[in-house]
Design goal:
seven-stranded parallel sheet; 10 helices; alpha/beta; about 375 residues
Length: about 375
């Protein structure tokens, strides 16, 4: 008789190279490190939870938010394809309110913990009567809430738990194309999902057109166009050009992100930059106190941050300007360059700004990113 193929019941892995054996019993090596406490069965903490925001959604936001809610009521999944700065989070507020008022559990997952931390005060403000918790690495003591904000890694704890699971930034590392994390998402949702992205793949768009519904929003909530990056070619010193370009923004007291493609390059150029402009910091995935550094930057205590793509999403502040150093690096895809550019002009009080790509040569990815941003501005009709 043919031996039955082993499929991991946790993550769905069936690849033999990630399957081990202990006492002749198979186990999965793909998800072996995902162990920890599980939540108690869901129980709503407050029967009178209402959405409380002190601003109005734009006409387009209102329209899509109501359509997403109707889709959820009809027990269908949704994909929200919305440009950076469109106000994606607001597009799911009505659905979250409906779910909570009907005693349903709500999860909001994103790939990166910095974004989870950034979302927490927004949700506690929007749903003041709800118990909002967040779960990231080294912050998982509390597992039961009305609204659970968490990284996609933490979804393994919540098998068949969420009635409404929202996943933002589905195109971001490490969630994108990660079989284990995608399996955790599917197994944690017992009813319907809402997926969101500013740069979804064609595959995702086609899938949800057939297996749910796709909602598009190509204008920012404040009705200003996306900022189109300016490409600056540096034939001599790229670092010298960076230092000169930074001077303009620091003189104007505009907060500044300088994106670098790798941690190593950041560590190489930051000490030189800091000698000239002392009031700045370097942040990356291995920086232990980066939450504190980012908080200080938001408070205006720092002039600039040299950062890897870890800050390409989520973090928002007024008058932010962006320089992408070594923009022609092979690690910068079209999608990453679009997301980085989307950091600028997000605030209603400051909808303009500059995005500068510093490179030694133009690349296909740079040209495609600029073309796509221009195309989205045309589709917005603004």
């Amino acid at each position: 008789m043919m031996e039955q193929k082993f499929i991991c019941p946790i993550c769905g892995n069936s690849d033999p190279k990630y399957i081990g054996y202990l006492n002749d019993k198979p186990y999965c090596r793909s998800c072996i490190n995902f162990k920890g406490k599980k939540p108690k069965p869901f129980k709503i903490s407050n029967q009178n939870i209402k959405l409380t925001i002190d601003y109005h959604l734009s006409k387009k936001q209102e329209e899509i938010a109501n359509k997403v809610l109707a889709n959820f009521k009809n027990k269908k999944d949704s994909l929200i394809y919305a440009v950076t700065g469109a106000g994606k989070t607001e597009l799911v507020f009505y659905t979250i309110e409906y779910a909570l008022q009907h005693n349903m559990s709500v999860g909001f997952a994103v790939p990166r913990k910095d974004v989870v931390i950034d979302l927490y005060p927004r949700f506690t403000s929007a749903f003041p009567k709800a118990k909002v918790i967040y779960i990231i690495q080294n912050h998982s003591q509390e597992l039961n809430g009305d609204i659970t904000l968490l990284t996609t890694h933490q979804l393994y704890r919540f098998t068949n738990y969420f009635d409404l699971l929202i996943i933002d930034e589905i195109d971001a590392f490490p969630y994108k194309d990660n079989q284990v994390l995608n399996s955790f998402a599917k197994s944690s949702c017992k009813r319907n999902m809402i997926l969101m992205s500013a740069t979804p793949s064609k595959k995702d768009i086609e899938f949800y057109k057939k297996n749910g519904q796709v909602f598009e929003m190509f204008e920012r909530y404040h009705h200003h166009k996306l900022i189109v990056p300016k490409l600056t070619i540096c034939y001599l010193s790229l670092l010298g050009k960076l230092i000169l370009t930074m001077k303009e923004f620091i003189k104007l007291k505009y907060p500044l992100f300088v994106f670098v493609p790798t941690i190593l390059l950041g560590q190489e150029i930051f000490p030189i930059i800091k000698k000239i402009y002392p009031n700045g910091e370097l942040v990356h995935s291995e920086k232990e106190n980066r939450e504190e550094i980012i908080a200080n930057f938001k408070k205006g205590k720092l002039d600039y941050l040299v950062t890897t793509s870890i800050l390409e999403r989520g973090v928002t502040c007024k008058n932010l300007q962006v320089i992408v150093y070594n923009a022609d690096n092979k690690l910068y895809s079209k999608e990453i360059l679009i997301q980085i550019s989307g950091r600028v002009g997000r605030k209603k009080q400051a909808p303009n700004g500059k995005v500068i790509f510093l490179a030694k040569k133009p690349t296909k990815e740079i040209n495609q990113a600029i073309y796509e941003i221009n195309r989205l501005n045309e589709k917005s009709g603004l």
